[in-house]
């Protein structure tokens, strides 16, 4: 077997094929949808099973868009007319690989960029049996906060969700797309189940995503509910019955149940003609007949006459010794009975019997936790009923960075709260946790992911409520889902670089679950954007951790003796001899950390070589403390370091020694600490060195320490450019040559360290975030009511597909669920930016409510968060007197005629400047422009560089800003990176309708120009986009351009013309033209879909005018959104 992530698939010689190796035809593209159902059905001989249209139409009636994938051996035989009226998209696919391969192949052809809810379904169930239960089920899916929602879970083989009906939401959509991207078409159903169905749940749990089963298995039940408890499921409100159950049972066993719910029997009968009914028939293979026989045996157990059967008795549900003995015997019997008719089922029975032999009655996986109980350790601090309770979660209790930070947090919070510490796995500072808290729970987990913490949390929340939780480190992310379900607000502390962990997407999943997220440095936050997070929100913060006190290690019996004191003195003497040999006046540079590439030990050596080669540097010594240097066995790194030292002639000037227990002595002996790391958030060695007054030198963009030094005025002295060892050597040389400045620098560094890493202030900031998260959670119902009752709340704008099928309270709840999620947030009304409101209101917004609810209750205060809205319903003005120009980048000239039709809706006729890619396109454009009844200034052939921005700024820019008052800019989109043509067309239609006009918008150019006439400080007018979008992956490019534009302090949150189409006052455009960008300055094609100079400029078109004092506004056309 070849293992791909968590998916085990056969090698190619086992007949596995790529999921996209089959013929596929897109009959009807489903288009863009926030809520999408992907329904797969097999059409024998091209015939659609009669129960399928009823099923798909039920989804549509519930307000979901449905794409049906019909798999068949011969696509030419598929009876399209029988299914096309009952779906919104239709895809035909050659049969192969079962449901997972079919979903994977079809989904690769569907654009899900806007999809917030994706449901995967297949035709293996009859139903919905009735509308009421089905609508309630869909409502539960919509109301769920989980990213993966299974209808039915199962503990057969391993804990998993059955795949006949699955839903994913939010970040779960991306995770599902990624999961399916690794799917191959496997030849047998069992292989598909083993490789994909059984592993899907764990893949989501491993990514830190939340999961929920709507109809969970009862305690102790280890069978398949859809078969053994099908009737009970219907009574619980699950409005389906498996087709195989109907096939397996006599009609008398199911007909009354089905007809009682009003389900048409003709649908079952018609489908059974294609599937084969009870007893089989010519259509049923021998393998299928065996499966049906096995199902029949299990399904009859749910008949009323068998209600008292053994597996439904109380004794069956508990795994005591007697029960395990009975179960083992029963499963061995069932294994023998099913050995010939259903070998796969027989193997499962054998596995269950073997587990009972070992006494392993409980299965692992989320929702089925191990029976090994958590250990409670009594804390040294007494419970105080007058104090609120808080929870501090650490992934382990080892004597290392993150657990030590959790210890210090617990100690600081214990002054104001009863602190419970939860250590998910073990370690040697559990007792130290107990010394600073009221109680400690040791979770006794083997590892921190994929397991449910619900039962564990319930154990210590039974008798008390928790105000909030501090969850420390990405390794603790598995607890976030269950904290959310327990209604405990969490502050999530992230110290790691997303690129340095095995699953970067865990960042996005975890951040989605946490109400407040704290990154220890700017670098870790920005690194998360590069590989994981889609964008920033006001609920993400950068807060350097305070200096930690290391818990004392347990002392052996003789450690308090005089001998131990002498031993430390002896180590101090050894350090002194090493770092400052007798009779020398050395300038000592120390480094510390594990000897590895990330820590930059080679850069430490390279800097040493550069420094000692300078004149007057004979007294310089370098000493590195840390384990891992073993050049005789570590041939990947250490051996090269030894060679580097030898070839640089540094043997007498540099020492690499093991870590010392007297590191504080080393700080006192060193003149400087060189932090040579390539990437290191906030290393404790640098924090400790600064707080003891040892000057620290570091590389810019490599550590959060560099940011602190730069912010506090020591950048010139102590921070070199990224990995520039020559510059670093110069900075160390300046200090080594001027010892008189050493004391002054030491004092400044010590002051900065004590201020920047004050743990009391750090703890207070965490408390403030925890309290506001708790208040926001407590106020959620009030926020929902405030928003639902506000006339300004526009569901048709922020949730157009649900606006007419859901009540305003539900729409408000839907808005609130996504309003704080990076990459998913939308605006509740045109012109309002909730993230900008949260930031710009400052102290007037305390974070205790959702930003929009706070805005409404504050009386809709004016500010940069609320743009003027030019509505298409306003009276159409006369033609404008302003000198207006419109630049059209017609890279796709076939769309120009439609553009001119929109312009003719207006009385105004802007002067046209049209850019094209070649002479042939220029000829076509000139021909079309003959019909334009306004001025045409130029048709210019431009290089294929800079997309639409290059022609605007580099080719036409100087002319546009000199001879015109207002400049419009549009371009024709085809977005080759987006496969869904409907998505691009809808976006273009949205922008053109809002900026030019059309059937819905009317004369939007006239309205835009009138706004510029009436508002003399109006600098930018763009379309009212419903999405809340920030810098995403473009901040680095924006900083470079911003500096050239005279804007070094870029805002976190802002508005900009999404799609780079707008009207701008010529004066506001001047700074961009003055950049004097040349064609070679633009990135070459093909262009990435984000993270380029052009995407940064798109955002700066909104940021720069606002920063220069210009006002901005948006246009709004009723019924046109995206």
Automatic annotation (TrEMBL):
Keyword Zinc-finger part of the UniProt annotation: no
Residue segments, region Disordered: 345-370
Coiled coil: none
GO molecular function, one term: glycosyltransferase activity
Assigned keywords, A-Z: Glycosyltransferase, Transferase
Compositional bias of kind Basic and acidic residues: 347-360
Pfam families the UniProt entry points to: Glyco_trans_1_4 (PF13692), RgpF (PF05045)
Superkingdom as given in the UniProt entry: Bacteria
InterPro entries: RgpF
PANTHER family assigned: GLYCOSYLTRANSFERASE (PTHR12526), TEICHURONIC ACID BIOSYNTHESIS GLYCOSYLTRANSFERASE TUAH-RELATED (PTHR12526:SF629)
The protein's name in its UniProt record: Uncharacterized protein
Native source species: Meridianimarinicoccus roseus
């Amino acid at each position: 077997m070849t293992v791909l992530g968590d998916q085990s698939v056969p090698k190619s010689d086992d007949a596995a094929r790529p999921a996209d190796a089959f013929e596929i035809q897109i009959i009807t593209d489903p288009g863009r949808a926030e809520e999408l159902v992907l329904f797969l059905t097999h059409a024998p001989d091209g015939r659609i099973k009669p129960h399928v249209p009823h099923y798909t139409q039920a989804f549509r009636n519930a307000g979901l868009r449905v794409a049906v994938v019909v798999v068949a051996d011969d696509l030419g035989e598929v009876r399209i007319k029988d299914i096309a009226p009952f779906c919104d998209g239709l895809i035909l696919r050659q049969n192969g690989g079962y449901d997972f391969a079919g979903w994977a192949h079809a989904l690769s052809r569907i654009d899900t960029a806007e999809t917030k809810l994706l449901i995967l379904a297949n035709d293996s169930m009859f139903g919905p049996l009735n509308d009421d239960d089905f609508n309630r089920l869909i409502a539960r899916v919509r109301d769920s906060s989980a990213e993966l929602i299974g209808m039915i879970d199962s503990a057969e083989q391993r804990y998993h969700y059955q795949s006949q009906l699955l839903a994913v939401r939010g970040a779960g959509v991306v995770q599902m797309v990624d999961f399916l991207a690794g799917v191959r078409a496997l030849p047998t159903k069992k292989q598909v189940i083993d490789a994909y169905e059984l592993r899907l749940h764990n893949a989501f749990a491993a990514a830190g995503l939340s999961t929920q089963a709507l109809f969970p298995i009862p305690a102790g039940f280890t069978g398949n509910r859809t078969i053994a408890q099908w009737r009970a499921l219907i009574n619980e409100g699950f409005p389906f019955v498996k087709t195989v159950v109907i096939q397996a049972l006599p009609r008398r066993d199911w007909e009354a149940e089905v007809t009682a719910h009003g389900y048409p029997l003709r649908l079952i009968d018609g489908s059974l003609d294609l599937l084969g009914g009870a007893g089989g028939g010519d259509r049923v293979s021998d393998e299928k007949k065996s499966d049906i026989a096995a199902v029949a045996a299990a399904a009859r157990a749910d008949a009323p006459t068998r209600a008292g059967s053994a597996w439904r008795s109380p004794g069956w549900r508990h795994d005591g010794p007697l029960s395990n003995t009975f179960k083992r015997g029963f499963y061995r019997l069932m294994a023998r009975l099913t050995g010939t008719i259903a070998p796969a089922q027989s193997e499962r029975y054998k596995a269950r019997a073997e587990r009972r032999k070992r006494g392993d009655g409980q299965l692992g996986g989320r929702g089925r936790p191990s029976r090994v109980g958590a250990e409670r350790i009594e804390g040294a601090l007494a419970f105080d009923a007058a104090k609120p309770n808080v929870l501090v979660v650490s992934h382990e209790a080892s004597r290392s960075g993150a657990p030590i930070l959790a210890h210090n947090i617990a100690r600081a919070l214990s002054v104001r709260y009863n602190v419970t510490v939860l250590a998910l796995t073990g370690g040697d500072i559990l007792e130290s946790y107990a010394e600073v808290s009221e109680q400690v729970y040791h979770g006794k987990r083997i590892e921190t992911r994929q397991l449910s913490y619900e039962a564990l949390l319930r154990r210590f929340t039974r008798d008390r409520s928790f105000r909030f939780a501090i969850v420390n480190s990405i390794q603790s992310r598995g607890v976030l889902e269950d904290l959310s379900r327990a209604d405990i607000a969490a502050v999530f502390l992230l110290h790691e670089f997303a690129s340095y962990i095995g699953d970067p997407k865990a960042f996005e999943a975890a951040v989605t679950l946490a109400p407040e997220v704290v990154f220890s440095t700017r670098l870790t936050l920005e690194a998360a954007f590069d590989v994981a997070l889609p964008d920033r929100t006001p609920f993400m913060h950068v807060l350097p951790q305070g200096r930690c006190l290391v818990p004392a290690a347990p002392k052996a019996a003789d450690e308090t003796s005089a001998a131990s004191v002498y031993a430390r003195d002896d180590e101090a003497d050894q350090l002194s001899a090493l770092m400052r040999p007798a009779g020398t006046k050395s300038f000592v540079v120390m480094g510390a950390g594990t000897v590895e590439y990330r820590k930059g030990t080679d850069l430490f050596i390279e800097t040493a070589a550069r420094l000692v080669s300078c004149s007057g540097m004979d007294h310089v010594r370098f000493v590195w403390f840390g384990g891992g240097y073993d050049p005789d066995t570590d041939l990947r790194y250490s051996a090269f370091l030894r060679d580097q030292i030898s070839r640089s002639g540094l043997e007498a000037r540099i020492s690499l020694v093991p870590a010392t227990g007297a590191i504080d002595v080393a700080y006192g002996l060193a003149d400087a600490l060189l932090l040579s790391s390539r990437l290191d958030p906030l290393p404790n060695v640098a924090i400790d060195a600064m707080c003891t007054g040892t000057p620290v030198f570091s590389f810019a963009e490599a550590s959060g320490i560099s940011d602190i030094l730069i912010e506090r005025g020591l950048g010139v002295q102590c921070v070199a450019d990224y990995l520039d060892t020559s510059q670093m050597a110069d900075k160390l040389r300046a200090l080594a040559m001027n010892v008189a400045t050493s004391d002054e620098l030491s004092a400044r560094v010590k002051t900065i360290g004590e201020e920047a890493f004050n743990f009391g202030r750090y703890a207070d900031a965490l408390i403030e975030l925890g309290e506001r998260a708790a208040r926001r959670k407590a106020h959620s119902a009030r926020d929902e009511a405030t928003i639902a009752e506000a006339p300004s709340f526009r569901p048709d704008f922020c949730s157009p597909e649900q606006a007419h099928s859901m009540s305003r309270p539900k729409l408000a709840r839907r808005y609130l669920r996504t309003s704080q999620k990076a990459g998913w947030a939308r605006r509740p009304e045109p012109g309002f930016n909730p993230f900008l409101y949260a930031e710009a209101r400052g102290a007037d917004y305390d974070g205790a409510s959702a930003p929009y609810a706070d805005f409404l209750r504050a009386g809709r205060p004016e500010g940069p968060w609320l743009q003027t809205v030019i509505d298409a319903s306003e009276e159409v003005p006369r033609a404008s007197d302003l000198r207006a120009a419109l630049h059209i980048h017609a890279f796709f000239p076939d769309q120009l005629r439609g553009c001119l039709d929109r312009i003719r809706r207006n009385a105004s006729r802007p002067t046209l400047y049209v850019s094209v890619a070649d002479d042939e396109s220029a000829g076509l454009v000139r021909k079309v422009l003959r019909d334009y009844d306004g001025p045409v200034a130029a048709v210019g052939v431009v290089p294929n560089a800079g997309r639409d921005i290059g022609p605007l700024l580099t080719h036409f820019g100087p002319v546009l800003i000199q001879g015109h008052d207002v400049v419009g800019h549009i371009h024709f989109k085809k977005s080759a990176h987006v496969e869904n043509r409907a998505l691009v067309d809808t976006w273009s239609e949205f922008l053109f309708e809002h900026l030019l006009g059309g059937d819905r918008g009317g004369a939007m150019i006239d309205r835009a120009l009138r706004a510029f006439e009436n508002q003399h400080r109006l600098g930018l007018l763009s379309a009212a986009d419903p999405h809340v979008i920030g810098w995403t992956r473009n901040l680095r490019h924006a900083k470079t351009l911003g500096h050239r534009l005279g804007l070094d302090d870029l805002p976190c949150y802002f508005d900009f013309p999404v799609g780079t189409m707008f009207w701008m006052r010529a004066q506001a455009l001047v700074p961009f033209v003055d950049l004097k960008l040349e064609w070679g300055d633009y990135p070459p094609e093909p262009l990435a879909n984000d993270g380029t100079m052009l995407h940064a400029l798109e955002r700066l078109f909104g940021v720069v005018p606002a920063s220069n004092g210009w006002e901005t506004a948006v246009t709004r056309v009723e019924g046109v959104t995206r």
